[in-house]
Each structure stands twice: as C-alpha cells, then as structure tokens.
Design goal:
The complex is a heterodimer of chains A (225) and B (418).
Chain A (H helix, E strand, L loop, with lengths): L1 E5 L3 H11 L5 E5 L2 H10 L4 E5 L1 E2 L2 E2 H10 L5 E6 L4 H9 L4 E4 L4 H17 L4 E4 L2 E4 L4 E4 L2 E3 L3 H12 L4 E3 H9 L10 H16 L6 E4 L3 E4 L3
Parallel strand pairs in A: 1-2, 1-3, 3-6, 6-7
Antiparallel strand pairs in A: 4-5, 8-9, 9-10, 10-11, 12-14, 13-14
Helix pairs in contact in A: 2-3, 5-6, 6-8
Chain B lengths: L2 H54 L11 E8 L7 E10 L4 E14 L2 E10 L1 H49 L16 H51 L5 H31 L6 E5 H18 L3 E6 L3 E5 H17 L6 E7 L2 E7 L25 H11 L3 E5 L4 E7 L3
Helix pairs in contact in B: 1-2, 2-3, 3-4, 4-7, 5-6, 6-7
Classes of the chains: A alpha/beta (225), B alpha+beta (418).
C-alpha cells in the first residue's frame, strides 16, 4: 500500500506519517503544491491525502491535475473548511471522501483503508484478520467460515477496529465514527461500552481469541496480543 | 401612492385651478367688452334721437326703431337732468317673452318739456355669445386635462421604465447567488446615475461579502489546524507505549476539552455563516421525513433513558438550507433528550406551519436569556450556543420561536409562516 500525504502543517504531517507507517505501507509526503504536483506526475499512489489550503497553491487544482493525468489514485480531501460548497466541489471533481479538521487519526485511517479497498478490489472486497472474515460488499461477517450475526453498529465497530489494527482507538473517536454529530447529546460513553461488550462476546463465542483490550479507560485496542 | 399618481394629482389640481381662475377672468372681460359695445350702441341711438328732435322739433315715434324699444315720459318741472345705464328686461314682441336687456336712461328737452327717454336693447345675443365662448373654453379645458392625464399615465410609465427595471433587479439581488445588476440603457441622466450607483453598490457589496467569506474560511482554517495538530499528537502519544492509569485519565480530559473547543469553534463559525446567510443549499426539505429519521437515530439514547416518544407528524415541506434544517432539528430534539429525565417523555407535533416539541425535564423554566450566546444554566454541559443557533436559524427564515413551560414541561414551538 502506497500513500501520499499532502499537508503543509508539518507537525500534523509527521503524526500522520507515524500513524500510517507500518509493515506493508509506504508513506510519502509533500508539504508544498510544487512537490506534490511533481510526485503525482511521477508516481502512482493507492491514495492521496490532500490538504486544500497549501501555501503555494489551491489543493483542488492538484485534484484537477490528477484527474487530467487519468490516474486511478484514490483521493481523500482533508480540509479545515467546513463549507458545504467546498465539500461538494471536491467530491464533484472526483475526490473519494472529505474529512474536516480536526479529526482522529483512527478515523482518517479507516477512511483511507476504505478508499483503497474500494479501488483495489472493485466491489469484491473482503477483510481477513486471522480467523475473522468480513465481506464489505455484502456486509457479512464470519469466524472460521461460520457466519455470525452482528448489528449495524457492531459491524461498523468491527470494520473500524480492523482498519486500525494494533492501534489504540479512543472512545471519543469511536463515538464520533458511530454517531457523528448527535454525539453532543450524551457525554458519557456507556452506550459505546454496550456495543463493544456485545461485539466482543459475539466474536469470542464464535471461537476467536480475545483481540479487544481496554486501554486505561481511554479507549480500545484491537489486535493479536 | 406611486410617484406618478402623486405628481398627476398635484399637476391636475394646479391645472384645474389655473384654468378656472383664467376662465373666470376671461368671462368677466368678455362680459365687460360686450356691455361696453351695447352701451356704445345705445349712445348712438341716443344721438340719433337728439338729432331727430333738433331737426324736426318733435319726438320720433317709439315704433320706428329696430330691435330696441324707446319710451318717453314727461317729467315734472324742476327735476334735474339725468343720464345712466342700467340692466333691465326687454320684452320681445315677436317671441312674446321677456329677455334680459340693457337700458340707457337719459333726459331730453323738447320745447319747454323735459322728457325722460329710456332706450332698451336686448342682451340675449351677447349672452348667447358669452355662453358659447364659455362652453368652448370649458371644452378646451377638459380636453387639456384629459390629454394631460393620458400623457402622464402612458408617457410617464414609459419614462419610469428604467427605474422599475433597476428596482426589480435590486429586489432580486441575492448575495449568495452572486448575481450582478445589469446596466439598462437609458437616455435620462438621473436614471443613468441611479443605474451606475446601483451597479457599483452591488459590486462593492459582492466584494465585501467575498472578503467576509474568505475571512470566515481563514478563521476556521487557522483555528482548526492547531486543533488538528493537538488531536493528532495525542493520538500518536497514545500509540507510543504503555501509559499509566493516571496518564489515561489526563489524556481523556484533554480529549474532552479539545472536543469541546472544536464544537465551540464550529458553532461560532456556523453562527457567523447563518448571520451572513452563507448557506447555499436551499431546497424543499421534507420535515416529516427528516424528523422520522432523527427519531430513529436518537432511538438508542431514548430507550436507554427510557424516555417515551410521542410523535404526531403531518406532512410539512419547507424551503430552506438542508444543512440548517438538520442542525435545527438536531439541536431542538437533542435538547429535548439531553435535558430530559429518566422515564420522561418527548412529544413532537408537526403540522403544515408549526413544529412543537414538548419534553419533561428536571429544571425550571428557561428565560429569554437562554437564547443569548454563551448563556447557560449551571448544570448545562453544552457550548451555550445551541439555543442561539436555533434562534439564528429561525430568524434567517422568518420563523418565530416560542418557549412556554406548561405543567412543568418545556415546550418549544416553531411557527413557520410562509
């Protein structure tokens, strides 16, 4: 997996690179329009993470450039602009997704993974993690070949964890991912706990190891111990 | 009242008064001239009688005069000579009727006798003439007024056309759509100037609006980027290695604070956007459907708190920004659930022009102040902007929002007046 991160805010860029770099992932970066333009012309990426406000150019033009080159790179726009026009404009120009700053790195990872999956497998995509198999197209989950029934929220949660294998994912990020803006209503995360408890119970009962660990009340980590 | 109507009214009134006064003067003058002429004729007649008396030493016969009557009356001795004109009546023998007349009464010496001579002429012809002249004058006056009226009505309408064209463009001027005011070709200096001013104003307003939008964008960008950095650093820190229980609690507090700051920032930007009417996704929003969706989304929290939901939805479609409709309902329903109590209830009544949300609650009645920015009750954990945003959205679309506190329940009513 090869991704390009275009972001002018260096500390943020650094965090993203650290989060994304793992076995099997090559992570390149560009902090100016010029260098980003050079890179997209020379190489192909599975996904380009594009910040709209660059010091020497408009990020959307980079997207236009990419489309002109007829490349099949996935594009995720990262923007501090919460303006609907920009969002629609970006998606119209062929971006695959749009994420507004500030965001959780786990959310970013989940979205990038989803884009790459969609691009690579052309609608027939399956995530496998040890004995767990999730068929994204049909939204079906099975453990050791035996299908298990998950609720919509449990399914979303599992896919989210699988995209962030081995990372600590905060309750905050999970809540935002599952409930979005309605999260303002309740400040306690009890209901997240309920969903996680149920998911964990279901996959353990189907015969997996206990991959989910709680991390000091702040979040959860999914992965082989 | 339209300018043209007002102008017409004054114009016609002035014309009428002037014409009436001149008509009066005209009448008097003509009358005077005719009386003078009549008097002159009478004097000629008097002369003839005097000459006749001087020549024949006797009075002429009264019947020998055409179109005039002459009477003689013997005066007693000692009466002074006298001579004057007078309006009298004239008896027309042919027509056998009385007509207005003019008489010259004078005295005449014949021998030793002093006679009073009355010469009377009919004024009928003169009066007829005056009447005809008056009628013609009146006719001309009416015609003049009528033509003025018509000219004003049609010509003025034509003349004001550029004005109304500019006016309609100004009315239709919409910042969000960024349309400009076009120049209408016109010969009239005033309209040219108006046209120019309107165009310039529109251009400068558009420029200001653009700058404002840029400012909003920049402010958002500048504030969100550091927040994004903090958030990402925290996420990275979390992956870095084992953390202690105490550190975990600290991190969670930081996350919560950042989350609040982000929400606050977003809310402020949203308020600015609504104030400046920067919403462009105006469409017909099906409130019935949207509320049903929201209720499904909130179902989980409702059932967790065992809050009973009563909904009574009638079809209601409103033309507004979809995004704002979403936020409006999120905030209203969110509040109704957030400030509810366990085993409470939420009632939603929607009909064509009103939305009513009633919920049980634990606190006391809200005051007008709760709609102000950053005003919140001590127990509230929100940003203090939720109700301000609701109010602002309602103001933008001319909805009215009312709050009442019947039987210890909170009741918000949004009146949609379209």
């Amino acid at each position: 997996m090869k991704i390009l991160i275009v972001e002018d805010e260096l500390p943020l860029l650094e965090s993203m690179i650290t989060y994304f770099t793992e076995v099997g992932t090559i992570c390149e970066s560009a902090s100016t329009y010029a260098s980003a333009s050079e890179k997209i012309n020379l190489y192909s990426y599975d996904c380009v993470l594009l910040d709209l406000g660059l010091p020497d150019g408009e990020g959307l033009n980079l997207l236009k450039e990419l489309k002109k080159l007829k490349k099949n790179d996935g594009v995720l726009i990262i923007s501090a602009r919460h303006s609907l026009d920009d969002k629609l404009c970006g998606l119209d120009l062929g971006a695959d997704d749009y994420l507004v700053k500030p965001f959780h790195l786990s959310e970013l990872k989940a979205r990038v993974t989803a884009i790459i999956r969609r691009k690579k497998f052309d609608g027939n995509n399956v995530i496998t993690f040890n004995e767990i198999t999730v068929d994204i197209t049909n939204m079906e989950t099975s453990v050791n070949g035996q299908p298990i029934t998950l609720t919509r929220k449990e399914y979303d949660l599992l896919v989210y964890f699988l995209s962030n294998k081995g990372k600590v994912v905060t309750k905050n990020a999970i809540a935002e991912h599952l409930w979005g803006d309605e999260m303002d209503i309740s400040d306690d995360f009890d209901f997240i706990y309920t969903h996680i408890k149920n998911l964990r119970k279901k996959i353990i009962e189907a015969g997996t190891n206990d991959y989910l660990q709680s991390v000091y009340g702040i979040g959860y980590k999914f992965g082989s111990v | 009242m339209k300018l043209a109507d007002r102008y017409n009214r004054v114009n016609l009134l002035a014309a009428l008064i002037v014409l009436m006064i001149t008509g009066g003067i005209y009448y008097c003058v003509i009358h005077l001239i005719f009386t003078e002429k009549l008097d002159r004729d009478l004097k000629v007649e008097e002369n003839e009688i005097k000459q006749y008396v001087a020549t024949y030493k006797k009075l002429p016969l009264p019947a020998s005069f055409l179109d005039q009557q002459v009477h003689y009356r013997l005066l007693k001795t000692g009466v002074k000579e006298n001579r004057f004109f007078k309006n009298t009546s004239y008896f027309n023998v042919k027509e056998n009727e009385s007509e207005p007349g003019r008489s010259l009464i004078t005295t005449l010496n014949q021998g030793d006798n002093l006679y009073e001579v009355t010469i009377t002429k009919s004024r009928l012809e003169a009066d007829d003439l005056i009447r005809i002249i008056l009628l013609i004058t009146l006719g001309v006056t009416c015609l003049l007024l009528l033509s003025l009226l018509l000219v004003n009505r049609f010509f003025l309408k034509q003349l004001w056309k550029p004005f109304y064209s500019i006016l309609s463009q100004m009315k239709a001027f919409n910042l969000v759509k960024m349309n400009s005011i076009e120049l209408n070709p016109t010969e009239v200096d005033e309209f040219q100037e108006l046209n120019k001013s309107a165009t310039q104003m529109a251009a400068s307003v558009r420029q200001d609006y653009k700058e404002l939008k840029n400012f909003t964008d920049n402010a958002s960008h500048e504030m969100m980027t550091p927040l994004a950095v903090i958030n990402s650093k925290l996420d990275t820190l979390l992956q870095a290695g084992p953390i202690t229980q105490t550190q975990g609690v600290l991190l969670e507090d930081i996350y919560t604070a950042i989350n609040r700051l982000t929400k606050l920032n977003q809310s402020l930007l949203l308020l600015t956007k609504i104030e400046n009417n920067l919403m462009s996704d105006v469409q017909v929003v099906d409130f019935k459907e949207l509320i049903s969706d929201k209720c499904r989304q909130f179902q989980e929290i409702l059932s967790r708190e065992n809050i009973k939901l009563n909904i009574n939805l009638q079809p209601c479609e409103i033309e507004m920004s979809r995004y704002l409709a979403d936020i409006l309902l999120n905030n209203l329903l969110g509040n109704a659930i957030k400030y509810n109590r366990t085993n409470g209830f939420v009632s939603i009544n929607l009909n064509v022009n009103s939305l009513e949300i009633i919920n049980s609650g634990k606190s006391f009645a809200l005051t007008e102040q709760h709609f102000d920015r950053f005003f919140k009750s001590a127990s509230s954990e929100g940003t203090g902007l939720g109700l301000a945003i609701i109010k602002q959205i309602c103001e933008l679309y001319n909805f009215s929002i009312d709050y009442s506190f019947p039987e210890g329940n909170h009741c918000f009513t949004v009146l949609i007046d379209s």
